[in-house]
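Supplementary Methods, section 5.1.

A reviewer requested that the exact input to the structure prediction be made available. We therefore reproduce it here, unchanged from the version used in the analyses.
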Amino acid sequence: MDWPRARSILLVAFVIVNLLLGYSLWGPKAIPALVQQSRGVQVEQVRLRLADQGMILPTGVLLPPTPEPMRFLRVEYRPDLNFERLLAESYRRPSPSPPRPRAFDGTSSDRLEPTLDPETNVVIYRPEATGRAAHPISLRDQAEVREVAEEYLRAEQLMPDNAYPMGVSVQGEMAVVEFVPMFEGIPVFSGHIRVELSARGVETVTLFWVQPVGYKDSAPKAVRPAAEALLRLAGHLERSGGRVWTVIDVRLGYYAGRSLTVTIPEAISAWETVPVWRITLDGGAIYYINAINGELES
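The structure derived from this sequence is encoded token-by-token as follows.
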């Protein structure tokens, strides 16, 4: 037997096998799996730390990945447009100059047309026969509740093109479906349409619909991870309470509380929103954690 040749063949075969094993472990297809495994370990560590602070992060709740640096977003709100949308589309009145919103005084007659709450500038509409469903709604069936709300808004031409469904919450004998504006694939939590339903159908529609108008002309800022937002919120709740909270949902978006008060319907209120992590807890509690500085937004 030619031993030198056999030894060379075995050495080459050994090198090839090692190369194949190395590629299978460290090649492009294996890297995502390793990254996912590392991320899974990190999430588990966050879950344990949250539990120590009285917050439960169920395994079914996924933490969104940290995005690239983001800019601030400017939005505008005009209460007269929100009101006239309801007035023109829901009532189909032919008047070329629709009347201005009335202040809500709590009387029964206010159920007959849209009203503007003077304190919040939210347009309130309480439909009567138009909101009734053909059959009783099962409020525990979130798909059915959302379908009824969407069908009603579309039928009344009240569904904006950039509306994004945030979900369904049920409390007692009422359910609420919320829609928010979407800007370049990111939800804007500063505006909303909320449809409140009972088993018989739509009871109330409230509008505070903002219009995103563009990014602030400044450099993008780094975004903090969702896990950090959860830990900061857990610390805040731990100091202010003592009960155990369960995380229902974590989403990235834009938000800022209104800093300007609109005193007349024709006025335009504009402000800047910041990237936030919106954290929904059991019981419907919603918190916004500033994704730039980590502070709790009011």
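The radius of gyration is 26 Å. These observations are discussed further in the main text.
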